[in-house]
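Retro notes - structure team

What went well: the batch runner handled both jobs without manual restarts.
What didn't: labels got mixed up in the shared folder, which is why I'm recording both outputs here explicitly, each with its sequence directly above its tokens.

Job 1
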Amino acid sequence: MDKDSNNLVVSITKALNPTETPLKMKHARNVIIATYRTKEIKSVWSIITRQPLMEHRFTAWKFCHMLHKVMREGHPICLKQSLTHKALILEVGKLWGHLQDGVGTCVESYTKLVVNKLEFHEKNAIFPGSLLLEFNEVEKFAEDDRNIYFQLCVEVFDYLDHIIDVQSKIFASVNIFRMSSMTPQGQCRLAPLITLIQDSNPLYDISVRLMFKLHNGLPSDVLIGHRDRFNDLFSKIKYFYDNVRPLQYFADVIQVPSLPENAPNFLSQIDLGNYVAPTVYVKQEQEEPPENLVDNLTPIENSDLNERDNIIKRLQEELLEKENQLKNEAKLISKISELNLRNHSLEAEISTIKEKFIEIQSGEKRTLHSEKESKASLEMNINELKFKTEEMKEMLNMKTMEYENLLADKNLEITKLKSGITQKENMFTELKNEYDANVIKCQEILKKNEFETEISRKLTDDVNLKQLECANLLQERANCEEKITSMNLTIETMTNDKYELDKRLHSLEENISLLNQELERANKEIDELKRNKNEIENLLFEAKSLTIKETFKILDCLSDSELTPEKALENIEQIQRLLRQLNTEYIKYSKSPSEINGLISTCLSLIHSITSLHTCVAYIFNSVSDLVKAEDILQNCNDFQDSLKPIHQVLSNSKDPKILQDIIDSIPNAKLKVIQELILSLINTSPEGLNLEYMLQMELKAMDEIIEEATNKIIEIYSDSKTSNNGIKLEVHEKILDSCTSLMKSIKILIKKSRLLQDEIVAQGKGHFPTKEFYKRNSQWAGGLISASKNIAKGANFLVESANRFFTTESSNNFEIIVAAQEIAASTAQLVIASKVKADKNSQKLVELTKASRDVSQATGSVVAAVKDGNIQLDNFNELELEQLTPSQMKTREMEIHVKVLELEQALQNERYKLMSFRKACYKNGQDE
């Protein structure tokens, strides 16, 4: 490998390191320079495909950022040669999108943006990677074809939509974990926003000019959809820029563009003259201290790089100066266009006034004959008409003076513009010629306007406005008659509405009467049930209190058991399970006191497990050398026993089951977790070590049992669904259950392949050591397998519970099955990744495991599709049922649906509060760790 190739490998490897830090710009620059040196990007892709894009999420994130920068600033051939890798880019996003965490969703969205950029440049080869292009080049490319403008505008909008989606997911990820922009973790997520701003700014400018171009040649109603979409994008881009601007991290890196308060009005060409394109400026980066990128780099190469940077900087300054000059030129042209538009407006107004005077004059001639006959009756109004005539003359004079002042102001502005253009005569020769022609036209228009104004003034002295006043009176009378007719129609409509409302009110009163009767019957039944319940509770209360009181005394006794730390861990898991079971049995007992036997049995089993745990902890305290940790374990064990006293009080006094649930979820579980962590840390530091092999095998065994049980439960649900449903519901249930069953089969195969690969890894890696020693030396790897196994088991249970709720309730939209399926897919991905860490790359079992993982992903997609299609079919079926109901039944169903909506809104609010509390707790735990 030559020196340049070796440098490129090192740069890409360092750029895509898996640490949670932002992409180093110097490494990205080295890759960009390499594309210009070699005039290709194939060598870059050959190195990228060997990076761990599928193993580390931050490697995938930096890969998207680096590829985006290379496509923007690298050699133009990069865009064309990267098209063959679209499938790989999307596969990276799809893999990490399954994790449903902050960075995973960001990676998935960013990969879609990168692929969209490749496709955009493929369709519109005229655009460079930086998207910086003069609009006259776009006009030449389109050849004034409105169809091309229309399609290009849609593609630019799509591009901006992808940018908005990426930035919104970045901010959501930062806000969820409350990251600062000045920490490496925050900057890792926020750094790509600079490139997104560089892309969105020219795209926004192009979209504005395209919209003005389209509105200049097409009817406004044809472009309603374009205007609505642009206004939505405008508000989102402005919100994006306003969110970035206050962040301290960007203050020294980029000058964020500023957008106006309101979107441009494309229906007025005046806004085109007032439009100023926003500018973005990326500040020169400070040179970072060298990191010995390659040991054999020479000072000559460094000097070449510095010289290139200086040349690039000088060219950027020249480009900025030229851009400022072009902006000044555009402003001058826009002002001239605005003056032309205003002159045309004045011409139109004067023409309108002239036509009115002509009409008035002709009307005056027609009324002269009739005026002789009605002269006597009009003499009383002559003075008033004369007065109004004088007022009209004064108003016309004032209007004329305003026009003259306005024209004078415009003449002054034209003079100023002319002097400004004269100063730049050498630079803008063509512009000056065009400007002189426009000035001559303006002077001709002014002379014409002055002549027409003089004619109008003379006409005002001769015109009699008496007939105009009469016509106005007649018009007002006609308007009054129309208003009276409209009011009569309104009164008639309101009368009909009142009649309909009276009918509906009568129907509601009948329904309320029926509901009151049913409510009285229900209250009587409830009173009867309460009396029966009180009788039963009085009979069992004394027996229950005595039994529970005696059973809790067993806590003071210690029983002999297997005195090992592993046994203590088993007891902790058993206690956690029994606490959950205790809550379930107590709920059953609260509903039916005859279920007390299950409650007492659970209490006795719980006490036995707690006694065994205490015995193991006492043995650990007397056996280990680390007395500090031993004392902590013993103290927490005693605290755990004390935390069970409120449970005793709840059970003895028959309190609300929700109180018991809150107590179990708070202190006891937290104490058990602390004891578990202390025992694990103590055993890991002991000479014997933790029997990870035993734990892993037990966890895998438990996972197999749970998945087998879940599969059988799904089959049982399927059988119940056949007996209780028919028609469309049965068809929907069959499709969903078939997809869930296929997912379970795929998971079984994946677990089997994972186990075979695990055995191969242990056989190859343990050497002369026993298997237990291998797991001890690779505890982190074993822990990853254990964690993945637990997550898969939890996902399988959640899937069964979700399916059961879906088929036993009347809900037609239940997305819990989708969430459960995606969670299982994410957990299996974790299991695959944990297995790949230690596996040989050429292992056939690894290939089989990878194929099984793809099958699980495909099965997950089938579950999602089946649920969504089923929801649509059930919604359509419910709509057909509603069409067959009577008006009374429709009203009853409406009230039932309204009650359901209120219940769902309340449930949604409660779940959002729980989610907020959960995130706060996770954030606090993350800080503590």
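Job 2
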Amino acid sequence: MPDRDGAPNPNPSPNPNKPERPPLLKKSKTIAAHFSGPLFPAVRRVSSTSPSSPRFSSESNTYSASSTSTSTSASTTHDANFGFGDRDYVYPSFLGPHTARSRVNFKSTSKSQRNQLELSKLPARSESMPSNLTSEGGGAKAEPKMKPKPKLKAEKDLHALSIQVSNPASSSALSSESSTSLKFVCTISVSHTLYLRNEVSKLQEENVSLRRVCSHVDLASAGITELKEVNSLVYFGNADSRIVSLYMVIFILVTPFVLYKYLDSLPRIIDLLKRKTTKKEEVPLKKKIAYMVDVCFSVYPYAKLLALLFATLFLIGYGGLALYAVGDGSFTEALWLSWSFVADSGSHADMAGAGPRIVSVLITSGGMLIFAMMLGLVSDAISEKVDSLRKGKSEVIESNHILILGWSDKLGSLLKQLAIANKSIGGGVVVVLAERDKEEMEMDIAKLEFDFMGTSVICRSGSPLILADLKKVSVSKARGIIVLASDENADQSDARALRVVLSLTGVREGLRGHVVVEMSDLDNEPLVKLVGGELIETVVAHDVIGRLMIQCALQPGLAQIWEDILGFENAEFYIKRWPQLDGVPFEDVLVSFPDAIPCGVKVAADGGKIIINPDDRYVLKEGDEVLVIAEDDDTYAPGPLPEVNKGLFPRIADPPKYPERILFCGWRRDIDDMIMVLEALLAPGSELWMLNEVAEKDRERKLTDGGLDISGLENIKLVHHVGNAVIRRHLEGLPLETFDSILILADESVEDSIVHSDSRSLATLLLIRDIQSKRLPNKDSRSIPLRHSVFSQSSWIREMQQASDRSIIISEILDSRTRNLVSVSRISDYVLSNELVSMALAMVAEDKQINRVLEELFAEEGNELCIKPAEFYLYDQEELCFTDIMRRGRQRQEIVIGYRLAAAERAVINPAGKSEQRKWSLDDVFVVISSGK
């Protein structure tokens, strides 16, 4: 059994059944017995020395020769008295370890001599042995001090032999036979020692291998028996951990199914444990959890990605645990294999064994599922991003751009005018926000087939009533905002425009630019201005077109002049300050610009009020700005005053107004406003005939609801006819040859469809001209103007053109493509209502001050745009420059802005070369801004 230090007893009792005799503590007694044979004397020793005596310490590896040694007794006993059960039977001292070796006495040697003697007799260390097996250890990392290593049997025999050989004097008592046998035994012992040394080397190599496997076990301090015990413990410890891992894998696999089956019973179990009773019916726990998951995935956009990441980590950890349970590697290696199976579906093919293969296939299947889900999420994210870009949901990062809110038929003309306006600066950015699909808007814009000249048009899908959509198009950084009227009726369209204005006023960042709102009804204008304040500029489309049509009916050719002035293609209005003109009277300012025509002054002292056609004696003051008609804002500048020769010219007063007969074909919702304008412009005794499908009683009610006092009309008389303007029978019942002007209106019933409205207007125009040509007497072909000579003498269009010389027809055209049909036939004048409104909106969007100018020019009172004959300013074939004519026009309180020659089809506004002399004819006409007095 092991001693108190934990080392095994080198001399165990051969008979475990017989109890060991108690040791003698005071006195040692040695009994020697001789057996037959010279080589194997047996020794019977009884000693009081404990087996753990210091004499067996491995520090010196020598026997102590101290006073505890006793002399050998010479008395002999009989062989029969010698019992093997009563003694410790041992081999001779040179063959094995003994409890005491006192047979040979030798002198005590010093410690250094003993160490040298011992080192000389021990076997040399093999080169293959690791250095960390030495007792002192010279490795990189010092190991703790080891316990004394028990001596092996071969070492003890070698030590005993060395003692006996090195002390021949002490064996003088042996016989000669014993000496011979001793030599023989020494030879045998040396051979056996070499064999044992070889065995020790093998055991040391096995020890190194065991150290590598069990690195955490201190084998240096353990014996052979302990090493086996440690190996067993390690083996069973690993086996136990893998079994526990296998149980954990099974438990984790079964738990979700058990929870899913008994999840609804969990609240009742908790209530029973808490001894509570709930009477009310609760929602099942499964539905609650499903609802929470649904809300989480709906509210948080990254919930799907996080769930996928958690599933991936769980699969790697769970798979690693399963691989560790069925495999023979470490847990970290199992985790790495699990990740490789998840990431690479083909890496499980090298697995060996049924268990690892099954687990690896399952992990690979889960990895394929996870990567399929990840691919689906990535694909959905990319598709969602592309759809958001395609549907116009992304944010616009722009500044100093024009923002258009809404969609209507005027958008094409509006974009065209804005592109022309931005041409001088190399193009700009126009953003359109409407409740339409982005692709549809872009396709409709592409159908315009117009060169935008560097201007970019960006479309976004959204509602102008939502602040988030307004912020998406950078509404706070736009230099101008245009709110288009919708295609609904007037009241609904104006109500929607009012809500859009309220949304714009709610922008926290504020608005940098002004807002131009297209209104449908003049009565709703004050409410929008009240809500928007100073930032709001309104353009009443129907009111503008109605007044323009009346002016064009009274003055043929005025529509084309308005197109040139309102559009950005030719000359338009600009307002700018010129400090060098301070202190100069307006009559000199009028001729100071060789490339522009001054029309008015913006008075700084009067709060920025614009005065059109001011008095000649008005002197410009500091801060005043000049209103001009020019090609572009950077194409004009004041120059030196030219020499002007007013000369003598005829003083002809304006002819008196005569009663006129006018026909309205169709019904407009603002027809009451048009009647009020006619009441202000026409002479007393004039007649207004109305042909439409509205009943006569309903007409009076609608006109009265619009604010028209029918009984208070003094200059005009209303004549009602019920009928359809596209039916020839209804038109033939009217005296079409007697009307001075005929206005074909876009009927209220079809104004939502520009194609249908224009088709109706064109059919009415052709029917009226055909009826007129048959009723009016034919004129001589020589009287046909030059512009009509391109047609054959037998053409039906020629007859209509002859009739057009006696009667003026103004058609309201909504689509610019219809204009080509009307202009080629030259049988009617026309008003492009949508295009003119778009021009006005674009002009006001570029400079909101222009709206004051347009409002005054379109009003029934104040200054207006007129066409005057040449006989008011010159004599026939008189040679003058345009500047001289401008000076003569000031004598009539007019500003001459252009002219149209008798042989020309279009008027020239702001002509170049104003100082050049030329001959004028009385058939020429001049375009002027008149005070209207």
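One thing worth noting from job 2: The radius of gyration is 60 Å.
We'll revisit the folder naming next retro.
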